[in-house]
Amino acid sequence: MRVAFVPAWKNQIDLGLPDNLFDRFRTKKEGMEMTHVVTQPCVGCRYTDCVVVCPVECFYEGEKMLYIHPDECIDCEACVAECPVEAIFHEDNVPAEWQSYIAMNAEQAPQSKVITEKKKPLVDS
Questions:
Q1: What is d(CA 54, CA 32) in angstroms, rounded to the nearest whole number?
Q2: pTM of the predicted structure, to 2 decimals
Q3: What are the structural domain ranges in the chain?
Q4: Which of 40, 82, 107, 110 could anchor a disulfide with 49, C-beta 3.0 to 4.6 Å?
């Protein structure tokens, strides 16, 4: 029998967190892929507003864009609202024309350097 942990304060204090946040953490821990993906709008701009709000430091810096490491992202959604070019999507909601970015994030993040602090965007942004 499995028992889900839900803090007693969850229903008493509105922190603006998604209702299923704790289920997402449990699902991620059990090995199911649930992650966010940086897509095409980030190419050439590389704003870093998203990295400062990430609680697990799962962003990686590529030459022309940022990547999210799928094994490190806890799906908290903090980065989504911070992205000024709306480049971050949950993997289930990535537009059809940008589906290749799911694999690109998974391949490029482990080969790139972690980024945890805000930097200037690229010149052409």
A1: 20
A2: 0.73
A3: 17-114
A4: 82
Q: Which two tokens stand for residue 105?
A: 């994030």
Helix (H, G, I), strand (E, B) or coil at 77: coil
Q: For residue range 67-121, what is the model confidence (pLDDT) as tens digits?
A: 999 999 999 999 999 999 999 999 999 999 999 999 999 999 999 999 999 999 9
The CA R_g of the chain, rounded to the nearest whole Å, is 15
Residue from 24, 34, 27 nearest 71 by CA: 34
88 DSSP β-pair partners:
38
Amino acid in the structure at residue 21:
L
* 52-89: b (≥16 Cβ within 10 Å) or e: eebeeebbbbbeebbbbbbebbbbbbbbbeebebebbb
- For tokens 């970015």, what's the residue? 101
Q: Which residues pair with 89 in a beta bridge?
A: 37
Q: Which amino acid does the sequence have at 79?
A: C
Q: What is the CATH number of domain 17-114?
A: 3.30.70.20
CA 30-103-58 angle, 5° bins: 60
SS3 content of the chain, % helix, strand, coil (to 5): 35, 10, 55
